[in-house]
Amino acid sequence: MRKKIVAGNWKMNNDLSLTEGLITDLKSQSKTSDAQVMVAPTFTNLWPAFQSLRETDIEVVAQNMHFAENGAYTGEISASMLKSVGVKTVILGHSERRAYFNETDELLAKKVDAALNNEMTVIFCFGEELDDRKSGNHEHVVESQIKNALFHLETSAFSNIILAYEPVWAIGTGETASPEQAQDMHAFIRTTLANKYGSEIADSVSILYGGSVKPNNAKEIFSKPDVDGGLIGGASLKAEDFFAIVNAF
Ligand code: PEP
C-alpha cells in the first residue's frame, strides 16, 4: 500500500507569530483521513514549528537545502542543520527554485544525494511549463527531469523518495490540471519508474499532485488511482482549507 500524503508548502509566507497562529489553528483541526500530513515553514520557523508539532502526527519538513555538508556557502542550510532541528524530509526541485534560483537537474541530483546520504526523505518536484503542454512535449520534459535527477540512484533509495508532479502552469494560477490529466501523467511517471526499476518499486512510490489544489477540487483529483496525495501551496495557509484537503481522501 502506498502512503497517502498531503504536504503544505508555506513558501516565503508568515513570520514567527503568524506561523505560531497557523500552527495553533492546525492543531484545532480534526483529521478524518489516513493521509500523512506535512507542513513546510520557512527555515527560520522550522525549529519552533517542530517543537510545537512534535506531539502531533503533523511532520515539519523543509522547503530546500544545500548539497554540501558545511562550508563557505553564505546563506545556505545543510541537511545536518535541518536534522538538528528535527527535520527529516526536504522538498527539492520546486519550480520556483528552478525558475528563480536557476536550479538545474544536475544540481538537484547533488541535493538529492546529500539528503539521502543524511538519511532524509526527499519530496522531489518536477513538472512541465505551459508551452511544453501546448506542444505535446510534457511527457518528454517530465521524463527528462526525473531521469536526470534520480536515475543514478540505487533501487533501495526509492523508499526515501516521494515524487510531486507539479505542472508549472497550474502553480498559484488557480488553473488545475484536470483529474484526467493528472492521472495520465502520474501513470506515465509510474511506467517511467517501472521501466528502470521494475514495477514493485514503481508501485511503492507515492506520487503527489500539486497545482491549485483546493477544498473544492481535491476529492476528484485524489480519487484517481495513481494520485497518492497533494503538495499544496496557497490553500495550505489556512488551516481549515488545508484540513478540508487532507480530509478529501
Ligand atoms: C506549490 O507551490 O507547490 C503549489 C502547488 O502551489 P498552489 O497550490 O498555490 O498552486
Description:
With 249 residues, this protein is of the alpha/beta class. The chain has a single domain (5-246), classed as TIM Barrel (Alpha-Beta Barrel). Helices cover 41% and strands 14% of the residues. It is built from eleven helices and eight strands. It has helices spanning 16-27, 46-53, 79-84, 95-100, 105-117, 130-134, 138-150, 179-197, 199-204, 218-222, 239-246, and strands at residues 5-9, 36-40, 58-60, 89-92, 121-126, 161-165, 207-210, 229-232. An eight-stranded parallel sheet has the order 3-2-1-8-7-6-5-4. Strand 2, helix 2 (46-53) and strand 3 form a beta-alpha-beta unit. Helix 1 (16-27) packs parallel to helix 2. The longest helix has 19 residues, at 179-197. It is globular. The protein starts with a strand and ends with a helix. The mean pLDDT is 97. The protein binds phosphoenolpyruvate (PEP). Phosphoenolpyruvate (PEP) binds at residues 9, 166, 171-172, 210-213, 231-235. The site of phosphoenolpyruvate (PEP) has 13 residues, from strand 8.
Topology:
Elements: E1 5-9, H1 16-27, E2 36-40, H2 46-53, E3 58-60, H3 79-84, E4 89-92, H4 95-100, H5 105-117, E5 121-126, H6 130-134, H7 138-150, E6 161-165, H8 179-197, H9 199-204, E7 207-210, H10 218-222, E8 229-232, H11 239-246
What is the mean pLDDT?
Answer: 97
- Using the 3D structure, state the CATH architecture: Alpha-Beta Barrel
Order of strands across the main sheet: 3-2-1-8-7-6-5-4
What percent of the residues sit in helical stretches (DSSP H or I)?
40-55%
Model regions low in confidence, pLDDT < 50 over at least 5 residues? none
- Please provide the count of β strands: 8
Number of helices: 11
Count up the domains: 1
Shape descriptor reads globular
Distance between the termini: 15 Å
The biggest sheet, with number of strands, parallel, antiparallel or mixed sense and barrel status, is: 8 strands, parallel
Structural class: alpha/beta
Run of helices and strands:
EHEHEHEHHEHHEHHEHEH
